[in-house]
Amino acid sequence: MATAFTNSEKELIRNRLHKAAKECLGKYGVKKTTVDQLVKMAGISKGAFYNFYAKKEILFFYVLEDYQNSLVDKLTKKLEKETTIGIEQFSELIFELYHNVRQSFIMNIIQQQELQYLMRKLPEELLMNHHSLDDMFMEKVFSHIKVKDDVHISVVTASLRAIFMSMMYMKEIGEQDFEEVLKLLIKGLALQIIKEDQNE
């Protein structure tokens, strides 16, 4: 008979699994990380793992989502300190967000082009919920900027996602110029969505 975990034990195990998953994604990527590696690092049985996650890709998804949420929280706090966000401030903040991603464990799976593979392995409802979270984040951002009348949150969110996905093709785009390309794409989006007073 399986041992029932207390709520505090469940939280501890989840934290250990998330830490192990983060480390493995940074070192090995999605395909080369096994459930055996994860449970060994977390100090739990394989059976216990499946009490928490149906497969390793779902654990990876939650680890990525946690990381994204931490970035969004930092960005939201910065936005709250500003009275109004213009094109330049918006461009700098979004670039900083992407720059942080480039310095993180996520870049390993982006460079190995495993992000699409991971998304294909996930249940559809997880992805749909994730896109809803992106839209909620953009609503927070929009509350700090003057947005042009014809701008739709879902389109801006999809545009930011498309710019993010360009990191998978950094070598093809050109690593030497990639940061400038990223800045240009973000600034271009900012120009399309933000309304600034002419006399500012």
Q: What distance separates the N and C termini?
A: 69 Å
Q: What is the CATH fold-level name of the domain at 55-193?
A: Tetracycline Repressor, domain 2
Low-confidence stretches: none
Most strands sheet: none
Helix content: over 70%
Strand element count: 0
> What is the CATH C level class of the domain at 55-193, in words?
Mainly Alpha
Structural class by secondary-structure content: mainly alpha
Order of helices and strands: HHHHHHHHHHH
Radius of gyration: 19 Å
Which CATH architecture of the domain at 55-193 is right? Orthogonal Bundle
Arithmetic mean of pLDDT: 87
Bulk shape: globular
| Total helical segments | 11
Amount of beta strand: under 5%
State the main characteristics.
globular, 71% helix, 200 residues, Tetracycline Repressor, domain 2, mainly alpha
